[in-house]
Amino acid sequence: CVEGILVQDWVRSSRLLALIDCEEDKALFIYTCNKTPVICADDITLEAALPIKGDFICNIESESSMALPGADVPVRITTNETDVLFELPFGSKTSHFFSQIKQAIGNFLQQTSQGRPLSFQWVERYRLCIEESQQSGTNDLFGFDKFQPASTAQPHTVEKTPPPAQQDPDDLAFEDNFADLRVSQIDSGSEGPPGLSPGMRESQGSSYGSRESFTTSSTEENLVDVGSGSVTGVMKTMGSAVRPVGVRDGIVKLHMSKRESEFTVLKPFRIFIGTWNVNGKSCAEDLGPWLACDAEPPDIYAVGFQELDLSKEAFLFNDSPREEEWLRGVYKALHPRANYKKIKLIRLVGMMLIVFAKHELASYITDVAAETVGTGIMGKMGNKGGVGVRLVFHNTTFVFINSHLAAHVEEYERRNQDYNDICSRMLFKDFGSPLHISQHDAIFWLGDLNYRISELSADEVKGFIRKDMLRDVYEYDQLNRQMRIQKAFIGFTEGEINFLPTYKYDSGTDSWDSSEKNRAPAWCDRILYRGESIRQLKYRGHMALKISDHKPVSSIFDVQVKTIDEKRYKKVYEDVIRQLDRLENEFLPQVSLSKLEFVFSNVMYKEEQQQSLSVTNSGQVPVQFEFINKLDENKYCKPWLEAEPSMCFIMPGDKVEVKFIVLVDKMSASSLNAGEKLEDILILHLDGGKDFFISISGNYIPSSFGASIEALVRMHGPIREIPIELLFQMESDPSNSQQVEPFQAFDIPKEVWMLVDHLFRNGTKVAHLFDQGGLHKNFFVDHACIHLNLHRFIAGSIHSVAEALLEFIAALREPVIPYVYYQKCLDCSNNFVLCKQVLSQIPRSHRNVFKYLTAFARELLLYKEESKLHEKTLATLLGELFLRPPPGKEVLQVPPNRRQAAIQQIARKKASFVYNFIVNEYDE
Amino acid sequence: MAKQYDIIIRLLMVGDSGVGKTCMLCRFADDDISSTHVSTIGIDFKIKTLTIDGKKIRIQIWDTAGQERYETITKQYYRRAQGIVLVYDMKNEESFKNIQKWMKYISDFAPEDVELILVANKSDAYNSERKVSKEHGEMFAKEHRIPFYETSAYMDMNINEAFIMLARIVMKRHKKEIDKQMEHIRLFCREDSDAHIIEKQGKDNNGCCVLM
To answer: Which Pfam families does the entry mention (chain B) (predicted)?
Structure first.
């Protein structure tokens, strides 16, 4: 599994790629990440499931294959239906993932060629799931609302840790994530195909153009698939430079709101709030006297109704023809001197709230949302409760709540409770964290709050009213009292009431309730407000409207709205962006290095030198560094160099020591002898950050190890006494060197002779001459002697001399049998005559060394008893030394399952070639 | 719901060691330069967010080591650049001559549709210190049909202008892709009011770039 970035032209969004395997079949699953880092299953959404079969192609984009080292790897995935481009993080994890996919493709081809086509039925199920959810995504909001509770209520959640899959320790990070996967089991009775049901969730635009994608819940069966899947790879953060800016936008908003006062100017706007309990009546009256009784047209209207529809249908199905009717009625009656646009309408059973704004202001209204809360029967139903609309007007947040609280004189505590319920349950979503009513600048609460007059009888109330002593009645008003003792509507203000109680009248009249209940008049219908910049201008009842047993109430407010001064806004915005950019740059990975240049002097063959570099994380975030390859090179450094560790993770403030180890061995000695310089530049790449160049240089002291036979036979003195230029020249053109040849060339390199001579004198009867390594210390002593031609003083143990001989032969720039004859020798290894023919073709000095060493081998075999040597062992040993595959042909081009056999076969051929010459006398 | 989009353009700075590439970058991205700068040994980058012609763009600017010994390595970074700033020091004739060399590398290693500008840095120099005349620089730029700026990272002169010019011609070059992307963002992400306002301002200013 690898975290990658989906590239759609210039937009990048992160995706999670996982190779899922179910028995034989494999499929690539692509998840969208709703959150980074991904922690649990809710953070990812299955977007596509691509079975790895014939049409599945996965390639590194050729166009950018030369991309800079450390950059993300562009990978294109193509099937018959899709064609997508991903950027995967640079590094070994990605290449591992990539090779796993390649392997899966190969596996598929193999399976089908053997007549066992894979069905991918399990993948089809996931694919159905995705299709299903994407189709549902086109449903309207209403359908979505209805569906949501159905799918979340039924499933019960199963948490299960999948059995550990076979994997590298590196991959544990991802396994942890998988362990967190919550897989929901869904009753097969629910919507969708049996056993499958998409649990819905809104998420950001998916890659295939559909606006919503949904999390896919799996069945129990699918759970097993996920569990048994061997998932490889590791989560890796992407370079921050290409990280999506989603988070960033949130931060910009936050900073802007903090500095709001710097770029906003307060301007007054007129708000009209109206409320009316229409007692289930249809809209048969002109609402003008209520809604358009002022000279100036208001900027915003918020009009609330209660008991809009008292029918059973409205209660049970929340479906009412009255909605349209009253909307039209209100619309007609809005102030004639302005054009209004409906911003939002929300209704719950009989409670309806409509918000209008002047046409020209509508574009300044954003982030509109509506919610409902039922507090009726069982505390949930919509016969009582509240509906609310919130919006942002310029830069000021508004919320309007229309509520219908519990009825009956004595139920005032229940009303308080309803108020509290609405406050706690009315949450506006889709704005990051859900917004409460209290989180708005201007709050208007209207509706039939149902608070009555306590302690006074109906007649007493009516008496006061007749004497125009409304103030005295107000003293007995329950809402007034509850607010005073802080039991409800804390923080709200209500204007002075100097209109008649709005309840209860005989419908069609202005006369008090004449039924036998003889209810006391009360101010059921109220308008309250909360917010610093609100000024109430009018608060009144409207006696002219008569169809209901309530009278409508309205209020006019002036609200100081924060409008944006565009010039100042721009300035602050730029400033915020600048600061964030700076912050972001500061939070890029950062390290300090103790040194950027390393010089290794007098490097000698097989003598290790070390220097260390301290890497300190001087930044503010954890850093991962890695030495990366340079263009067209397959390792991050030259063969004689090693960095330990070559990849590491450092916490801020911590320090890591990187050791640079220089060691010239037989692999690298010959090119250094031939004039290549001891120089390299390493690229130290910080994951998601900068690259450092580290220079390594030094001088190599040439050694006869790694020299060519041609050069060695022409050197009569010690190699270190030969001028470097001459040496390079001899090495660069070994065949043609008449001019530089001071004397006649030796038959064989003197070093070979020296070592063999020493062994011949002292070692022929020593057991296991070549099997035992000599002491390392002695080995170096021998080196020095060889370089200085001090053969008389060869001091080490006989075994270390033997080892030196083998090493010397192995390090020869070109092996004893030159590369061009390698294949010929193998081909004719079973025929001594042909072998002799090939041998006669190789250069004289090479042939001499070959003859000399095989003769020495024959000599050793004379003392078989003591030396415990055997023809076959010796032949194998010398075969490996004499016959080396040409550079670049070391790796056999055979399938992995036959590789071992092929290697053994070649080894046998090498041995048998040499064997011919050990058991037979040979002379030209 | 967080928006998951980003429009990024990648710019690269090349030029001899010591011409002031890193200072220019610091001035542009952080509006700050340090007087005790050490030679860049490697590749560094900074990010800058801009609104150009009403479009919110993130610019990633890569600063390369100018020293000759690293040329073989830095060349491989050209590949992904959409725009390249060629910088020389007007007090250093050699650095101007070497622009030829950098141009060669660009034609060898950078994408074919890469956009270039030529910048003569250190315009705060006294007349007596100046070794490359403005006319020379202009002529060279004209020859290659690329914009030319004399800048001073030290005095903060023309730095923004130069980078924004390059960003703008890169955007022009890739207009199709960017417009498609903008459309995508408009359709699939809820526009926030900030972008709305900035975009509007961009238009009001007759497409003039707003630097942030």
So the answer is: Ras
